[in-house]
Every structure is written in C-alpha cells, then in structure tokens.
Records
---
Amino acid sequence: ASSLLLAVAVAVNHDCPHQANGCGGTAEERAEEARRRARLVSLDAPWNEVREAVVDACGLQVQQSTSHCFQDFNHVDCCTMDSTRQHETNEASRVAGMHAVNYLGSHIVDASISERGPGGSWCTCQISSPEDVCHRQFGARTAFKLVWCRGTGFAALLDDYANVLSHGKPTGARGEPPAMGGARAREQSWRVLDESKNASWAGRWRAACDEVQYGAKAEAAEAEEHDEL
C-alpha cells in the first residue's frame, strides 16, 4: 500500500495541469531570452509600437500570422515550447473554451525566430487560465503574459509567477488599446485572471498589479513559493 501511495504522489503534477512531467514542455533557453527582452520593452509608448515590441520579445516575427498577438483579450500569453511539443493539439488536453483540435504547429514553426533558442514561440490563449493552452496543451510555462491591470489602460508584462518585467500605460492613436476590443477587451482580459477558480493564481496577478499601480511592493516570487497551477 505504501509503495502505491508513493507512486501516486510522484505522479501528481505540481506545475502544468495534466502533464506527467510538470512543465517539461517549456523551451527554457528561449523563455529566458523572451523575459530578458520583455524587461527592455517600454510600455509608455504608442500601442502599435508596444505591441510589435512585445511580439518580438516573445520570439515571434511581426507578420500577418501574428497580427492578432497581444491585440485582444485572449491571445496575451507568450508561450515558449520545446520542439517536441510544437505540434501538440487540444484533442488530448481539452482546454475548456478552445477548438477541439487547435492545431498551431505550422504557424509556430513559420513565425518563430530561430535565433532566440531551441523550440518555438506563440501567443497562446489565456482562456480557462491556468488550465490554458500554454500550460495544458503544450505543457509549458508562459515566458511572460500581457496583463491589463484591473481592466484599466495600465499594462504589465509578468512572468508565470507574476514577477514584474515591465509596466506602463500605452497610448492609442486610433482609439484605446488593444485594437481588437479596446476598453472592453482589457476588462474581459482581466476577468479571465481575476475570476479564475484557482485562488492562488488569481491572487498573484492582483498583487503584481497592486505593486506596479499603487506601490504595494511584493517580494520576487520563486517557483517553490506558489502552489500548483
């Protein structure tokens, strides 16, 4: 009986939901480079410039296939996945709210900047967060996430533990950012996080936004300080 309990304990996933090896699908070198570049992005700039800089930081080419990236309420996660996971679909992971297949492999291969490290990048959907496309379909941690703090025009780039990489208030030449939805998209994007069924997950984003918006300083987070996703 004790050996059976041990086997079950080892199999419990403390990172990416329903992945046998945690977030083993993360392209770590690529993720670190994405975070390094995200720290250099100024969010206090015109939105079109900000968005293109964020797309580039993620390790993606600014082209037609990435024109939706970070441009609506949903495609806000910079996911860097191992090359063995690039062609994973949603058929097994079954992320709620997503297409039953959600095949992205060819787009990932085409748009990823190869010089940024092994594996690929994509701006994955945050819907059902944290049981979302990056964590569940690709078995990877997000390199960073674009968060519209409390649905306002104040934006932050945060890593998977909500450590702040950059923050600011983008300006829009034609309406409020992002282009696909404006204020409504920002509010909806925040609700996905704020209303997550995982209380710890929701709490980390609130704390990070309180830090950058109101000066409520939060300590830098490490993996072991958070419960499982």
---
Amino acid sequence: PAAAELFCGVGFVVTGMPQEERQRLEGVLQNHGGSVVGDFDELKVSAATLCKRLNVSEIVLVCSEPRRTLKLLYALAHGLRPHSSLWVSRCIRLLRRLTPQPHDWLELPGCSGWPARGTSGLFAGVTAVAIGSPQWREQYVPLMCVAGADVRTDLSELAGTDKVASRSVPRSHGGGAHILAHRLVVMESASEKSSAVRSAMNSGIPIVLTEWVKQCLMEQHICKITPLRTQIKQEAARQAKSGL
C-alpha cells in the first residue's frame, strides 16, 4: 500500500515511552493512515465501541517499556498484546503490515506466555466489590469491567452470587484456573480493623488490594491471593520505596 494507507483501519494505543517520543510515534502512525487512542479514558469502553469511535477494525498496542501506567493496564485489560516500537519501524521501512515475529513482542515481567482466551476477559466469571475513594473507583472499576469482571457497589450484593459466578475461570487464564476468588473485594487500601474488611473476612470472601489487579493484568493470569496482612505490609514497603 501507499505510505499514507499503510495502517488504514488500525487504531493504536501508544504508551511506555517519554512523552516527546510517544507524540512523535503517534504522528508517524497517523501519517501512515493509523488512528490513535489519546488518553486511557478512551479505553474504558468495549473493544467494539472503541473501534466504532475510531472507525477502525482493530486496535494495536505499541509499547517500549512495560511501565504500569493506567493506559497500559487498560490496553492489557482489553487483551492487547504489546508490540515493540521496532515492529512499527520495520513495517514502515518495508511499507507493508508485517506479521509480528517473536522479537516483535514486548516481554512483560512475570508473563510466561500470552493466553488465547478469545472474547473472554481475564476476570470473566469474577464478581467483585470495589472499595476506595471516588477517584480510585473512577479509574479501577471500569478497568476491572473491561477485563470482564462484574463489579458491584456494596458488599451485601455479593451474597447469593455463588450460583451465578462460581463457574471456573477458563484454563486459558493461566495458573489460577482453579480460582477460589469468583467473589472478591478489591480495595484501594485496607486496615484489618475496618468494618468492610471484617465483613468480608466473616463471609469468607477474599480481599485484594490494587496491586493484585495490576499484577494479574501484567502477568496475564489470575495470580495467587496472599493473606491481607501480607498484602498490607507489601504495599507499605512499596510506598516507602517510592518515597510516598
């Protein structure tokens, strides 16, 4: 195809690089017929809706470094496997859309392989209650929904969901296929003394912090749920390390 039509019908999510480099690459993609997703907010919808809005038939993720930005997490929630920017360069140099080779994919830390799960999201079959600040909920509730979770607003809504949500998570979802967490409480932060934590514990419902959601998306499988006390200590260590 002509250079201006090389990526016609393709929408791109570009992340994991300095702003100036990202803007330059987005400009190159647009000059070659591609469309570009601007902010992660645009990724809060279904893949079909996103394609319709961009007037494209598919979405491609391009990433230089696996920085755990919301934009990358949303792209991963959509099931997009990250291409390296070198793949884009090769396509442009040869003026044809190349089938990605193993070296064209960006490796994600902890991700041992890319599962083929069809249209099912990573969290398909999971019913969750999300507890956190309004800003946190605005960011992470749509993220979990995009990944296939059924997110409720109150802990009492998890009662009686066993029959609906207790089916096994598909084996293509990785090592957590036997997931016990078909019901989950996902919290921005937690104290073992809080009423929500006590209620969840009394109901036998697993509790996870935001880090677990991120880890699952980065590794592309349902990760093991560690005791809440361990999660709280790990979160405190991460915040201390980052200087927060």
---
Amino acid sequence: LRSEALNLKLAATPQLRDQVRDDRIAWLAAPDECDTKGLPALGDAARLLFGFAHALQERINSVDDGSSAPVLNVCLAPPKHVMLAAYHGGDGSIGYVAHRDNIPKARTKEVGIGVENDRQVTILLYANEGDWDAEKDGGCLRCYPGADEADDEGDQPGSISQDVAPRAGRLVIFRSRDLLHRVLPVKSNGRIRVALSAWLLDGGAEVPTDSPTAPGADPGGSSDPATAHFW
C-alpha cells in the first residue's frame, strides 16, 4: 500500500502558500480506478473506506441507550473520493494547522480555513513504516476532543489535547464537524507520513425521530465530551 501510494503523482495544495498545510496529495475517484491503474493495494484500502458508510449507518441505527441526543440525524452516503496525503519530514515542516473538516457556513469567514460541506464522518487509514516512532518522527494527529465550537486553535482555557500516533494500519474515525484536530510536523529528514482519508457524506435524508437512530450519545455509549467525537 505504501509503495503504491508513493509512486503516485502527488501535488501540493494551494494552502501551502498560506502555510496552512504542506502535504502533497492525490485524489482517487473509486476503488475500480485503482484496479485499472494497477494499484491493487490502494483499491483494497479504498474499498475498506467506502464500505464504512453502510457499516456505520447500521451501527448508528442499532444504538439505543435511552439518551435524547441524536448521533447523526442524517443518512450517511459513501465517499465520492479518497484522498492520499504525504507529509515529508525535515526542517520547515508545517503539518496541517488546527481545523475541522466541516464548519458551519456562518463561521467560514471568521475561521478562514475550510468551508461548509456535506462531510459528516472522517475516516483515516495510515500507511507508514512499521518502525515509525511518534516521539522521534512526529506526525501525530493531535485532537482537541471537547473543544468549544468557537475554539479554532485548541488553546482556550480548559482545552485538552490527545495525540494519535500514525501507526501502520491504524484506522481513526471521527465526526467531521465536531472534532478540532491538526497534523503535527514530521520531524525526521527522509521520513514520509502517508495517510488515506475518506469522508462519509450527508445522504440528504433525515433519520426518523422514532427510529432506533435517534437515541444515543454516540455508538460507543460514551457521554464524556472528551471522547464523544470518536468512534
């Protein structure tokens, strides 16, 4: 998977100019596209990410812990694309500044990063070397669970952070609109942090309030605001 990813033609994003992020990316339209291009490992990884739409919807529909808050009052649709991102290590590495993957339209000018979109759930799959050392190599996903919706940096009083090491094969799932997060710079020269990202989308239909989907704080049953954005 990693070797296929690094053999793709990757390009910097326009946000590099503003020092927002320094990854190089490629978009994959569908698993079948990977197969036709002779990229079987990427195709299998894309199928895994695409399949989570159905699996998560079933999981959400089965939750009933007696609470009144809906998990996600929408039907999830599969991703339209999978994004591959590679962050190169060394001096001057930026990573990706704190952001949310989907923000309310009313705050787009205030925040200055990102736009409102249909993203509901973010799924990440890491394809790094087995000996990746988060302390030495960096590149962790720094999450700010429980951050206030007006907190765009994770630096407000009382905010907490949680680092997730980008270990090979690790899968991370969170709510796109809720979780403030950033990618820490890759420290080591010659190291390349590789991740696949997919976003489950708003399918356009609300979940009926009398369905088993409506109750439940989150599929894991957690009411802790510090963990409620994760699955």
